[in-house]
Structure formats: structure tokens, C-alpha cells
Specification:
The chain has about 300 residues and is an alpha/beta fold. It has two domains: about 5-125 and about 290-300, Rossmann fold; about 140-280, 3-Layer(aba) Sandwich (Rossmann fold). It is built from 13 helices and nine strands. It has a five-stranded parallel beta sheet. A four-stranded parallel beta sheet has the order 2-1-3-4, sandwiched between helices. It is globular and about 55 Å long.
Length: about 300
């Protein structure tokens, strides 16, 4: 078993297998129910969540494992106790450690001090579990190696993981956002390198029309995440030209789907009519957080 801090940690074969297990168990859970009976999965939340908390806890229970949920004030990660010490202690109690944190480096420290697999439920650098659900949702619409995905707005942690996962799957990922809101240069370079070997393509542009034209998937995320509230006004001003409107969405392919990892700020990054469009898949995508985490658990558990 290995750690899962970034999507490439799975490797291409591991990503394919985790997605296969997710899809298989979604179709019929019978074969997999109880597969992790007797194991204990720690779910730590430094940042609160609805989808991650519920989807991960339910998936853990469905596989017969026992979820142990910890909140930030119960652990005091890096404040009341050194991150490495937390990792070494929890490693003695639990079979898997899944953490949702502000600082990605805390996950790196945790992984360095724990033999049990450490799973990134979200950090400032990456959201790999979301990317698994994203790929599962796209794969239900079309083959991943044929997909053209337009990600519009802030090049954040969700964007990073989507770029890496899409590149590994042979997809074309187009990212459009204003100057200063581009995805990290190191992530762009890594995703581009992966895409060169998989037949995928990575494009980063400021031209939203170029990104969306003919796309099979139009994807956006909130412009202001937890911890960025003081920047909200500036962010809205800079990102408003990248709002996903019905007009923009309909410039994509005729059968394009809309995706959003939620929660959505209706009327900011996307209009209500796009969120409620007949080809919006946001709630399928949210449901797939549960199935994809189940597939990940099964894969990491061997």
C-alpha cells in the first residue's frame, strides 16, 4: 500500500484500476461489501466539508471498515502536537489516514512518519479524490481518451488535480483564467510531460472562448475558497469575465456536460440556469465522490 497525496502517486495502471473498482462497485456493491472488515480508517478534517465527510464515511462503512472521524480542534495538527508525532501515533491505531488540510506540506510530513497509507482529502496544492470522481463522471459520458475538458476560472487545487488526472487518462484539458490566476507552473509542466506520453494535451489560455469551443465538458469551481474570504471582492472583479453563462456553455459541443465540484456560489462562477441545465452533472459528480473513494480504498487495500 502507498500514499495518495497527488494523482500521479497511483501511476497510470493504478488510476485505471481504482476507477474500474469505483465503477464496478457502483454497479453492484455485493462483491465488495465487507472487503475491509475489521480495518479502521481515520478521517481528519482541518477544513470542514459536506461531500467529503459524508461520502468518505459512507464508503468506508460499506466496505466493512470502521471510520474514525477527527476534527481540527481535537488534534491541533502542528500546534498542540508536531505533525510527525500525530502521524506516528495514528499509525499505531489506524490502517489508513485520510486528511483534509490547509497546508499540503503537513500531508508530506504525515506520509513521512506513517507506514499506513496517507490519503489527501484536500490540500492547498491538490484535491486528488475529487479528480477521481471527476474522471468517473466524465467516463460515464464518453471515453476519457477522447474527452476535451474546459476548466474555467481559478487555477486552484481542483484544477491541478484535474490537469494531472486528465493527462494520465489521455484527455485534453484546457484551462482558461485571468493573469495571476493560472495553475502552478510546476503542475502545468508535469501535466504536459505526462500528456506527451499518454496522447493527451494540456492547454492554458486567457481566452475563455478558445477553451470552451467544442469542449465535451465545461467545469468550474468557486472563486473564493475557505481562507480567502478577505480577497473575495478582488477575485470576483478579476474572474467575472470567466463566469460560465448559458451562452458560454452552449458554445461547447452540442452534448457537452457541465461539472462543478460544489459547493457553488450561484451567480458568481456560474449562473443558476447552467447549474440547473439538463446537461448539468453536478449531483452525479457529487455522488461519484462516494463511489470513487470506495474504489480508491479497495485499490489501496490491495
Amino acid at each position: 500500500m502507498s500514499h495518495f497525496l497527488m494523482v500521479p502517486d497511483l501511476g497510470s495502471d493504478g488510476l485505471t484500476e481504482a476507477l474500474r473498482l469505483a465503477a464496478d462497485s457502483k454497479r453492484d456493491l455485493t462483491e465488495y461489501a465487507g472487503a475491509m472488515r475489521g480495518q479502521k480508517v481515520g478521517l481528519f478534517f482541518e477544513k470542514p466539508s459536506t461531500r467529503t465527510r459524508v461520502s468518505c464515511e459512507v464508503a468506508t462503512v460499506e466496505l466493512g471498515a470502521h471510520p474514525v472521524v477527527l476534527k481540527a480542534d481535537e488534534v491541533g495538527l502542528g500546534k498542540r502536537e508536531a505533525v510527525e508525532d500525530v502521524g506516528r501515533v495514528l499509525d499505531r491505531y489506524l490502517d489508513m489516514l485520510a486528511f483534509r488540510v490547509f497546508d499540503h506540506q503537513n500531508l508530506v510530513k504525515m506520509a513521512g512518519s506513517s507506514a499506513a497509507p496517507v490519503v489527501n482529502l484536500l490540500s492547498d496544492r491538490s484535491h486528488p479524490c475529487q479528480a477521481l470522481a471527476d474522471l468517473e463522471t466524465i467516463a460515464e459520458h464518453m471515453p476519457l481518451d477522447e474527452a476535451k475538458v474546459a476548466y474555467i476560472g481559478d487555477g486552484n487545487n481542483v484544477c491541478h488535480s484535474l490537469m494531472l488526472a486528465g493527462a494520465m487518462s489521455g484527455s485534453e484539458i484546457r484551462v482558461a483564467g485571468p493573469a495571476g490566476y493560472e495553475p502552478g507552473a510546476d503542475i502545468v509542466a508535469e501535466a504536459s510531460s505526462i500528456a506527451a506520453g499518454s496522447g493527451g494535451r494540456i492547454m492554458v489560455t486567457r481566452d475563455v472562448a478558445e477553451a470552451v469551443e467544442g469542449a465535451d465538458v465545461v467545469y468550474t469551481d468557486v472563486w473564493t475558497s475557505m481562507g480567502q474570504e478577505s480577497e473575495a471582492a478582488d477575485r470576483i472583479e478579476m474572474l467575472m469575465p470567466y463566469q460560465v453563462t448559458r451562452e458560454l456553455f452552449e458554445s461547447a459541443a452540442d452534448d457537452a456536460i457541465f461539472m462543478h465540484c460544489l459547493p457553488a456560489h450561484r451567480g458568481e462562477e456560474v449562473t443558476n440556469e447552467v447549474l440547473e441545465h439538463g446537461r448539468s452533472r453536478i449531483f452525479d459528480q457529487a455522488e461519484n465522490r462516494m463511489h470513487s473513494f470506495r474504489g480508491l480504498l479497495l485499490y489501496l487495500n490491495g
